């Protein structure tokens, strides 16, 4: 009978590093997802943003049961929320709250894609939601933040 060494618990620094990596990835991904909504033909403008978001809202309304007023309101706020939440995650501003709000935003976006049966987009967003859930488990190891959560 061989004795295997007892598993050692990860050190606090490993959890801190794991959370920091998740936070940076999610922050960058969310921020750039918002910024790309302003792009068309290599130019980033507010005119492009509203044209892109109106086209997205009309597409979802045309292929689902959701009314245009609902999809348009969601789409027009989406880019701004992604930029705000992405920047907040990168800086570590109320990280727990920001992670929950970002997760809810991705769930809302997934709902729209589920309604139009866009399975690939839903799968990508499900990965984001899973990463956010993992980050929420590790959020107590958040050591580098501008405005920390209360424990």
UniProtKB/TrEMBL annotation:
It is found in: Membrane. The keyword Transmembrane applies. InterPro entries: DoxX. The keyword Isomerase does not apply. Signal peptide: none annotated. This is DoxX. The chain crosses the membrane at residues 74-92, 99-116, 122-139. Keywords: Membrane, Transmembrane, Transmembrane helix. It is a multi-pass membrane protein. Its main location: membrane. One of its GO terms (cellular component) is membrane. It comes from the Bacteria. Coiled coil: none annotated.
């Amino acid at each position: 009978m061989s004795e295997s060494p007892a598993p050692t618990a990860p050190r606090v620094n490993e959890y801190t590093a794991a959370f920091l990596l998740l936070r940076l990835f999610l922050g960058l991904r969310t921020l750039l997802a918002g910024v790309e909504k302003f792009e068309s033909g290599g130019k980033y403008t507010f005119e492009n943003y509203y044209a892109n978001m109106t086209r997205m809202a009309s597409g979802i309304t045309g292929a689902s049961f959701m009314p245009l007023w609902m999809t348009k309101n969601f789409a027009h706020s989406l880019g701004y929320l992604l930029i705000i939440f992405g920047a907040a995650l990168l800086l570590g501003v109320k990280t727990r709250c920001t992670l929950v709000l970002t997760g809810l935003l991705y769930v809302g976006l997934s709902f729209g894609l589920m309604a139009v049966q866009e399975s690939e987009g839903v799968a990508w967003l499900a990965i984001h939601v899973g990463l956010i859930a993992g980050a929420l488990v590790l959020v107590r190891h958040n050591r580098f933040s501008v405005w920390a959560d209360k424990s």
